[in-house]
């Protein structure tokens, strides 16, 4: 039951080239930076990533993206990541953009063993009808477009069929975790981390504070340890290393 591993490199030692990864984080909040850096150090490449966004400010998944290690991204937000946009438009990167709520539910459904579900989000758009550019040809044309999805009416309202997401591995970051893998997330870092953790067949969690089993009130657990296979305790320096994406000050 003790799922603690000694180092980040040990935690991701069996992640192969071409693996699919569900990665937690919301903006710069709750991003498993230490595990991502370990993947970079190992030289893992050709990965398919499922994450709300693909890193920013040279942190998070931006580390793998800048090194050309990511082959495909399934996410909701490109945002201010200029390298992400450049690779996408240049045809170097395949990108499936998904409505944010749909992405969250696809991860949760995959983790809950639900193969697919119907949602009204995207009905009447290219999300349902197909034609969204997944890969450009580098010259302004579309090399690969999304296929149409099944649309069905329930009580007179159309819904589009979306498939649950399962990945080979999941990388997440929690504010607190115990040796059994029970996790607690802080504020907005809870947005996607529990869902990403559920979707991974092997889930690795880096935790800012490692506690003994029983130290977390069962009612306070955000993600039960059944979804987590490995736990990495961060050093105080690693736990405190948190960036601010948009710093705003006033006199």
UniProtKB/TrEMBL annotation:
Which InterPro entries does the record match to this protein? 3-oxoacid_CoA-transf_A, CoA_trans_fam_I, CoA_transf_BS, NagB/RpiA_transferase-like
Q: Which UniProt keywords apply?
A: Transferase
- One Pfam family this sequence matches: CoA_trans
Task: Give GO terms: molecular function aspect only.
Answer: transferase activity
Q: Is Transferase included in the keywords of this UniProt record? A: yes
Recorded family membership = Belongs to the 3-oxoacid CoA-transferase subunit A family.
What is the name of the protein in this document?
A: CoA transferase subunit A
């Amino acid at each position: 039951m003790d799922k603690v591993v000694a180092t980040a490199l040990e935690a991701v030692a069996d992640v192969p080239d071409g693996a699919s990864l569900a990665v937690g984080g919301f903006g710069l909040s709750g991003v498993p930076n230490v595990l991502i850096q370990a993947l970079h150090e190992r030289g893992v490449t050709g990965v398919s990533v499922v994450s709300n966004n693909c890193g920013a400010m040279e942190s998070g998944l931006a580390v793998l993206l800048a090194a050309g290690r990511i082959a495909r991204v399934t996410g909701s937000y490109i945002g201010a990541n200029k390298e992400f946009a450049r690779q996408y438009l240049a045809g170097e990167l395949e990108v499936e953009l998904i409505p944010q709520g749909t992405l969250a539910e696809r991860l949760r459904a995959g983790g809950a063993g639900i193969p697919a579900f119907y949602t009204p989000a995207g009905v009447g758009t290219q999300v349902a009808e197909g034609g969204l550019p997944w890969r450009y040809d580098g010259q302004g044309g579309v090399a690969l477009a999304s296929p149409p999805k099944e649309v069905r009416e329930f009580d007179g309202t159309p819904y589009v069929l979306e498939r649950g997401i399962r990945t080979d591995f999941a990388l997440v970051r929690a504010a607190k975790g115990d040796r059994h893998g029970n996790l607690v997330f802080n504020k907005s870092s809870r947005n996607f981390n529990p869902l990403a953790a559920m979707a991974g067949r092997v889930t690795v969690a880096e935790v800012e504070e490692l506690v003994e089993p029983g130290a977390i009130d069962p009612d306070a657990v955000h993600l039960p340890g059944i979804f987590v296979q490995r736990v990495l305790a961060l050093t105080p320096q690693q736990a405190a290393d948190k960036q601010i994406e948009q710093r705003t000050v006033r006199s």
